[in-house]
Amino acid sequence: LDQFYVLEDTADVRTHIAYWTGIGATSLKAYMHLTRDQLHVTVEEGHKRGLKVTGHLCSITYRESADLGIDNLEHGFFAATDFVSSKQPDVCPDQGAALQSLATLDPSGDAMQSLMRHLIDKKVALTSTLTVFEPFTPARPVPPGLDVLVPSLRDQFMQTKAQIDRSTTSIFAQLFPKIAAWDVTFFRAGGTLLVGTDPTGIGGV
After folding, report:
1. Hey, which residues does 72 pair with through a beta bridge?
2. Backbone angles phi, psi at 112, to 5 degrees
3. Are residues 87 and 93 in contact, defined by beta-carbon separation less than 8 angstroms?
4. Torsion angles phi and psi, residue 173, rounded to 5
5. Are 142 and 161 spatial neighbours (Cβ–Cβ below 8 Å)?
6. Per-position b or e across 2-13, b if 16+ CB within 10 A of its CB
């Protein structure tokens, strides 16, 4: 978290939104460890200014964020913590547990279908970022464009990708096809699906 200023309370939220919108920010993004109260104020202050609020969430579930009025959720369903049985309010659960809860979820079961319907009813869009997760998935093709990387970064990417492709226990082998299918299901059910990327991953985006 050393890259980020960690908000202290809802008053701090209002102060920061006033500052950043005052110097030209045109949208707001909630990040992983925000509380529900802080997100509520973020949405309230953002919408008051005619701005959209998006989020890469963890401590707040997708259902909770929809109820609080968020406009968009980042990373498709990859960041959803709604299905972690040990999830505590306003606490980001272990990331491994969060991914495991998705990997073992019935892909067409009532739990996910209910969440999708809730997001659609609340008019919450999803931004799919499959390009950042695909390289983590064994046996997926190498993405185009590696020729623009300097040789050391290209070599680093290829070494990491080779190690991933040798893995026989990667959770992404189960998870990536589910997430991709859920994106399509969400869209076909009437959801608003955007396409995006991310500056993280293994360096090939």
Report:
1. 54, 125
2. -70, -40
3. yes
4. -60, -40
5. yes
6. eeeeebeebeeb
Token code pair at residue 105: 């979820």
10-residue stretch averages of pLDDT, the chain, 205 residues long: 75 95 96 96 98 97 98 97 97 95 94 98 97 93 88 93 95 96 97 91 78
What DSSP string describes the chain?
-TTSPPP-SHHHHHHHHHHHHHTT--EEEE-TT--HHHHHHHHHHHHHTT-EEEE--SSS-HHHHHHTT--EEESTTTT--TT-TTPPTT-PPPHHHHHHHHHTS-TTSHHHHHHHHHHHHTT-EEEE-HHHHGGGSTTPPPPTTGGGS-HHHHHHHHHHHHHHHH-SS-THHHHHHHHHHHHHHHHHTT--EEE---S-TTS--
Buried b (16+ CB within 10 A) or exposed e, 145-159: eeeeeeeeeeeebbe
Name the token pair of 129: 């970022």
Give pLDDT, residue 51.
97
Answer whether 45's CB lies under 8 Å from 17's CB: yes
Taking the model in full, what pTM does it have?
A: 0.93
* 133 token code pair: 């997760």
Nearest CA to 57 out of 21, 81, 89 is that of: 81
Q: Which pLDDT score is estimated for 197?
A: 84
